[in-house]
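FW: tagging you since you asked about this chain on Friday. Here's the raw sequence from the shared folder, copied in full. Didn't touch anything.
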Amino acid sequence: MSEHEQMSQSEVQNLSGLNVLLTRPAMQAAGIAAAITAHGGKVIALPLLEIDPVIERADVERLKSLIMALDNYEIAIFISTNAATFGVEWIENYWPQLPAGIEAYAVGPGTAEILTKLPWLVHCADTGVTSEDLLALPGLQNVAGKRIALFRGLGGRELIAETLRERGARVDYLELYTRRVPEYSRESVLQQIEREGVNVVVTTSMQILESFVYLIDVRNVSPALLKKLHILVPSQRVQEKARAAGFTNVIDAGGADDQTVLHALQQCRTAMPMTQEVP
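HL: got it, structure written out here
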């Protein structure tokens, strides 16, 4: 468990002076937005990713057939909170009594928490929230001959499936949702950042960070803005991407769940007076 996860929400003291641009999907933002506000911070919502359930008939029918054959799998992997949320809903719709003998694996504690609704043993890495952290878990080393159900959205990173197939497993994708990037104008977003005095941007995935970089056209914004903004990211991999894009202050929260983000914001608030004045 990370340092952030060990702390309780009650230990967050004061987020006053933080004007937080919250970019996560709207359906996931309510809890963290309320927590930031309750601790004195200001939230400016700008969803840079929206999540929609699959609706194409072929996709739905394929997913339904795989869900109904869930008892053929030994392992179920959920790569995100979205995968867990939609996956649990699908499973509960088609399995009033869940098949026994399946072990669940979650990328991140937020995803693992959602999976506690299922009567399966849930494994989650305590070293981080990346695909690499998941793949290092002992139970995913000797998987030759095992069938693995990988719950995810349409498309995305292939590392988990490719690695497990190299280890001899049979991996099937259960693709539950699509990702959609909302459209905003660069000018209006930059004006909003200036008007609201945004000094922290929470980006909880690589895709969201890339959308933000593209939206504000980082190569053509002022160096003063790049220095002013503190970018909160979920992992070292995303941190490296943010720094390569030109941001000066990048904080690796070590996760994307609400509690971890909240405590990273507390650390950011504590450190910020050393780099810029907080009103």
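FW: The longest strand covers residues 147-152.
HL: agreed, and The chain has a mean pLDDT of 90.
FW: great, closing this out.
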